[in-house]
Protein backbone atom coordinates (compact mmCIF):
# COMPACT_ATOMS: atom_id res chain seq x y z
CA UNK A 1 0.00 0.00 0.00
CA UNK A 2 1.54 3.36 -0.98
CA UNK A 3 2.62 5.64 1.86
CA UNK A 4 1.04 9.09 2.09
CA UNK A 5 3.92 11.38 3.04
CA UNK A 6 1.56 14.07 4.34
CA UNK A 7 -0.05 11.58 6.72
CA UNK A 8 3.36 10.51 7.95
CA UNK A 9 4.38 14.10 8.64
CA UNK A 10 1.11 14.82 10.45
CA UNK A 11 1.51 11.76 12.64
CA UNK A 12 5.11 12.66 13.39
CA UNK A 13 4.13 16.22 14.29
CA UNK A 14 1.44 15.05 16.67
CA UNK A 15 3.67 12.48 18.36
CA UNK A 16 6.50 14.94 18.81
CA UNK A 17 4.26 17.53 20.50
CA UNK A 18 5.54 20.22 18.17
CA UNK A 19 3.39 22.86 19.81
CA UNK A 20 6.46 24.03 21.66
CA UNK A 21 8.88 23.55 18.77
CA UNK A 22 11.02 26.55 17.90
CA UNK A 23 12.88 25.37 14.82
CA UNK A 24 11.67 26.14 11.32
CA UNK A 25 11.30 22.45 10.56
CA UNK A 26 9.27 21.96 13.71
CA UNK A 27 6.90 24.80 12.86
CA UNK A 28 6.58 23.63 9.27
CA UNK A 29 5.62 20.12 10.36
CA UNK A 30 3.34 21.48 13.07
CA UNK A 31 1.49 23.64 10.57
CA UNK A 32 0.59 20.57 8.53
CA UNK A 33 -1.72 19.52 11.35
CA UNK A 34 -4.11 22.41 10.67
CA UNK A 35 -2.98 24.14 7.51
CA UNK A 36 -4.66 21.93 4.94
CA UNK A 37 -7.27 20.41 7.24
CA UNK A 38 -10.25 22.16 5.63
CA UNK A 39 -9.00 23.22 2.21
CA UNK A 40 -11.42 22.07 -0.50
CA UNK A 41 -14.07 21.13 2.05
CA UNK A 42 -17.52 22.65 2.28
CA UNK A 43 -17.28 23.19 6.05
CA UNK A 44 -14.68 24.75 8.32
CA UNK A 45 -14.68 24.29 12.09
CA UNK A 46 -12.28 25.47 14.79
CA UNK A 47 -12.51 26.04 18.56
CA UNK A 48 -12.43 29.65 19.73
CA UNK A 49 -11.74 30.43 23.36
CA UNK A 50 -12.92 27.99 25.98
CA UNK A 51 -16.60 27.77 25.10
CA UNK A 52 -17.13 28.33 21.38
CA UNK A 53 -16.70 26.40 18.16
CA UNK A 54 -16.65 28.46 14.98
CA UNK A 55 -18.39 26.75 12.07
CA UNK A 56 -18.57 28.30 8.62
CA UNK A 57 -19.54 27.20 5.15
CA UNK A 58 -16.94 27.57 2.43
CA UNK A 59 -17.03 27.79 -1.36
CA UNK A 60 -13.61 26.30 -2.14
CA UNK A 61 -13.90 26.85 -5.91
CA UNK A 62 -15.30 30.35 -5.66
CA UNK A 63 -12.79 31.74 -8.12
CA UNK A 64 -14.22 29.38 -10.75
CA UNK A 65 -17.91 30.09 -10.16
CA UNK A 66 -17.57 33.86 -9.93
CA UNK A 67 -17.53 34.27 -6.14
CA UNK A 68 -13.82 35.04 -5.90
CA UNK A 69 -11.19 33.55 -3.60
CA UNK A 70 -12.57 34.89 -0.32
CA UNK A 71 -15.02 32.12 0.51
CA UNK A 72 -12.33 29.75 1.72
CA UNK A 73 -10.76 30.05 5.18
CA UNK A 74 -7.14 30.33 4.10
CA UNK A 75 -4.25 29.60 6.49
CA UNK A 76 -3.59 33.31 7.10
CA UNK A 77 -7.14 33.65 8.45
CA UNK A 78 -6.54 30.75 10.85
CA UNK A 79 -3.36 32.41 12.08
CA UNK A 80 -5.10 35.74 12.68
CA UNK A 81 -8.19 34.38 14.42
CA UNK A 82 -6.09 32.22 16.73
CA UNK A 83 -3.83 35.22 17.40
CA UNK A 84 -6.92 37.10 18.59
CA UNK A 85 -7.70 34.23 20.93
CA UNK A 86 -4.12 33.93 22.19
CA UNK A 87 -3.47 37.66 22.58
CA UNK A 88 -6.81 39.02 23.77
CA UNK A 89 -8.84 36.22 25.37
CA UNK A 90 -6.82 35.80 28.60
CA UNK A 91 -7.56 39.41 29.61
CA UNK A 92 -10.98 39.69 27.90
CA UNK A 93 -9.29 42.31 25.77
CA UNK A 94 -11.92 42.24 23.01
CA UNK A 95 -14.89 42.59 25.34
CA UNK A 96 -17.01 45.49 24.12
CA UNK A 97 -14.53 46.57 21.45
CA UNK A 98 -15.78 47.83 18.10
CA UNK A 99 -14.26 45.72 15.34
CA UNK A 100 -14.53 45.98 11.56
CA UNK A 101 -13.32 43.26 9.21
CA UNK A 102 -12.42 44.30 5.67
CA UNK A 103 -12.70 41.73 2.89
CA UNK A 104 -14.14 39.29 5.40
CA UNK A 105 -14.99 36.50 2.92
CA UNK A 106 -16.52 33.75 5.04
CA UNK A 107 -16.48 36.06 8.07
CA UNK A 108 -14.41 33.57 10.07
CA UNK A 109 -12.00 36.05 11.66
CA UNK A 110 -14.66 38.60 12.56
CA UNK A 111 -16.97 35.92 13.93
CA UNK A 112 -14.13 34.67 16.13
CA UNK A 113 -13.69 38.23 17.44
CA UNK A 114 -17.40 38.35 18.25
CA UNK A 115 -17.12 35.06 20.13
CA UNK A 116 -14.42 36.75 22.20
CA UNK A 117 -16.75 39.61 23.12
CA UNK A 118 -16.36 42.22 20.38
CA UNK A 119 -19.08 44.10 18.51
CA UNK A 120 -18.25 43.29 14.89
CA UNK A 121 -19.15 44.62 11.46
CA UNK A 122 -18.24 42.23 8.64
CA UNK A 123 -17.71 43.86 5.25
CA UNK A 124 -17.12 42.57 1.75
CA UNK A 125 -18.49 42.93 -1.77
CA UNK A 126 -22.25 42.87 -2.21
CA UNK A 127 -22.40 39.68 -4.29
CA UNK A 128 -21.19 37.48 -1.39
CA UNK A 129 -23.33 38.96 1.39
CA UNK A 130 -25.66 35.95 1.14
CA UNK A 131 -22.77 33.71 2.17
CA UNK A 132 -21.75 35.97 5.05
CA UNK A 133 -25.34 36.10 6.26
CA UNK A 134 -25.56 32.30 6.29
CA UNK A 135 -22.41 32.02 8.40
CA UNK A 136 -23.58 34.71 10.82
CA UNK A 137 -26.88 32.88 11.29
CA UNK A 138 -25.18 29.50 11.64
CA UNK A 139 -23.03 30.71 14.53
CA UNK A 140 -25.75 32.76 16.27
CA UNK A 141 -23.27 35.13 17.93
CA UNK A 142 -24.48 38.37 19.47
CA UNK A 143 -23.14 41.70 18.28
CA UNK A 144 -22.46 40.87 14.62
CA UNK A 145 -23.59 42.98 11.66
CA UNK A 146 -22.58 42.84 8.02
CA UNK A 147 -22.76 45.12 5.02
CA UNK A 148 -21.37 45.67 1.55
CA UNK A 149 -18.29 47.84 1.30
CA UNK A 150 -15.90 48.48 -1.56
CA UNK A 151 -12.44 49.49 -0.38
CA UNK A 152 -11.69 53.18 -0.67
CA UNK A 153 -15.33 54.27 -0.87
CA UNK A 154 -16.82 56.39 1.94
CA UNK A 155 -17.31 54.24 5.02
CA UNK A 156 -20.78 52.66 5.30
CA UNK A 157 -23.19 54.22 7.77
CA UNK A 158 -23.10 51.18 10.04
CA UNK A 159 -19.41 52.02 10.58
CA UNK A 160 -19.14 55.79 10.12
CA UNK A 161 -22.33 56.67 11.99
CA UNK A 162 -21.31 55.08 15.27
CA UNK A 163 -18.54 55.15 17.83
CA UNK A 164 -14.96 55.02 16.50
CA UNK A 165 -13.52 51.66 15.52
CA UNK A 166 -11.08 50.05 17.95
CA UNK A 167 -9.71 47.23 15.80
CA UNK A 168 -9.69 46.54 12.06
CA UNK A 169 -9.12 42.97 10.85
CA UNK A 170 -7.78 42.00 7.42
CA UNK A 171 -6.72 38.48 6.47
CA UNK A 172 -5.01 37.44 3.24
CA UNK A 173 -6.21 40.44 1.25
CA UNK A 174 -2.82 41.79 0.16
CA UNK A 175 -2.98 40.10 -3.23
CA UNK A 176 -2.03 42.69 -5.85
CA UNK A 177 -2.20 40.11 -8.61
CA UNK A 178 -5.92 39.68 -7.89
CA UNK A 179 -7.06 42.86 -6.14
CA UNK A 180 -5.70 46.44 -6.27
CA UNK A 181 -4.24 47.19 -2.86
CA UNK A 182 -4.28 51.00 -3.06
CA UNK A 183 -8.04 51.12 -2.26
CA UNK A 184 -7.45 48.74 0.66
CA UNK A 185 -4.86 51.11 2.12
CA UNK A 186 -7.25 54.03 1.54
CA UNK A 187 -9.90 52.16 3.55
CA UNK A 188 -7.40 51.53 6.34
CA UNK A 189 -6.53 55.22 6.36
CA UNK A 190 -10.21 56.18 6.68
CA UNK A 191 -10.72 53.81 9.59
CA UNK A 192 -7.57 54.93 11.39
CA UNK A 193 -8.78 58.53 11.12
CA UNK A 194 -11.74 57.69 13.36
CA UNK A 195 -9.56 57.74 16.47
CA UNK A 196 -5.79 57.77 17.13
CA UNK A 197 -5.88 54.48 19.05
CA UNK A 198 -7.37 52.38 16.23
CA UNK A 199 -5.30 49.23 15.61
CA UNK A 200 -5.29 47.41 12.27
CA UNK A 201 -4.24 43.75 12.23
CA UNK A 202 -3.31 42.27 8.86
CA UNK A 203 -2.37 38.64 8.25
CA UNK A 204 -0.25 38.03 5.17
CA UNK A 205 0.93 34.83 3.53
CA UNK A 206 4.10 35.18 1.49
CA UNK A 207 3.65 34.30 -2.18
CA UNK A 208 6.17 34.69 -4.95
CA UNK A 209 5.56 37.25 -7.68
CA UNK A 210 8.20 37.56 -10.35
CA UNK A 211 8.01 41.30 -10.95
CA UNK A 212 7.16 42.79 -7.56
CA UNK A 213 7.13 42.21 -3.82
CA UNK A 214 3.58 42.43 -2.44
CA UNK A 215 4.73 43.13 1.10
CA UNK A 216 7.04 45.94 -0.01
CA UNK A 217 4.26 47.48 -2.12
CA UNK A 218 1.82 47.42 0.79
CA UNK A 219 4.25 48.76 3.38
CA UNK A 220 5.25 51.59 1.04
CA UNK A 221 1.62 52.60 0.50
CA UNK A 222 0.97 52.52 4.26
CA UNK A 223 3.98 54.75 4.92
CA UNK A 224 2.78 57.19 2.25
CA UNK A 225 -0.44 57.61 4.26
CA UNK A 226 1.70 58.52 7.29
CA UNK A 227 0.67 55.40 9.17
CA UNK A 228 2.99 53.24 11.26
CA UNK A 229 3.35 49.54 10.49
CA UNK A 230 5.25 46.84 12.34
CA UNK A 231 5.45 43.06 12.23
CA UNK A 232 4.09 41.15 15.22
CA UNK A 233 6.88 38.78 16.36
CA UNK A 234 6.26 35.14 15.53
CA UNK A 235 6.72 34.33 19.21
CA UNK A 236 3.56 36.35 19.95
CA UNK A 237 1.42 34.23 17.62
CA UNK A 238 -0.65 31.32 18.88
CA UNK A 239 1.80 28.54 19.81
CA UNK A 240 0.09 25.99 17.54
CA UNK A 241 -1.36 28.14 14.76
CA UNK A 242 1.68 29.81 13.28
CA UNK A 243 3.91 29.41 10.24
CA UNK A 244 7.14 30.96 9.04
CA UNK A 245 5.58 32.18 5.81
CA UNK A 246 2.57 33.87 7.44
CA UNK A 247 3.03 37.24 9.11
CA UNK A 248 0.78 39.49 11.19
CA UNK A 249 1.25 43.23 10.77
CA UNK A 250 -0.01 45.93 13.12
CA UNK A 251 -0.87 49.34 11.70
CA UNK A 252 -1.55 52.42 13.81
CA UNK A 253 -1.77 56.16 13.32
CA UNK A 254 1.55 57.96 13.45
CA UNK A 255 1.71 60.10 16.57
Automatic annotation (TrEMBL):
InterPro entries: Methyltransf_16 (IPR019410), SAM-dependent_MTases_sf (IPR029063). Transmembrane segments: none annotated. CDD domains: AdoMet_MTases (cd02440). It holds the Pfam family Methyltransf_16. It comes from the Eukaryota. This is Methyltransferase small domain-containing protein. It comes from Aphanomyces astaci (Crayfish plague agent).
Amino acid sequence: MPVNILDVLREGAQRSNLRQASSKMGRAMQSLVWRDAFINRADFSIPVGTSHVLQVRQAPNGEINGLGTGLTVWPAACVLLKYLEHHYAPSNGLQGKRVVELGCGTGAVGLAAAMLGAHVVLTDQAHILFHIQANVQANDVAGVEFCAYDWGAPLPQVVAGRKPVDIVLISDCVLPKLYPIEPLVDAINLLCASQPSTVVLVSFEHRYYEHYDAKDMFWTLVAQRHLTIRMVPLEAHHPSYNADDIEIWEITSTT
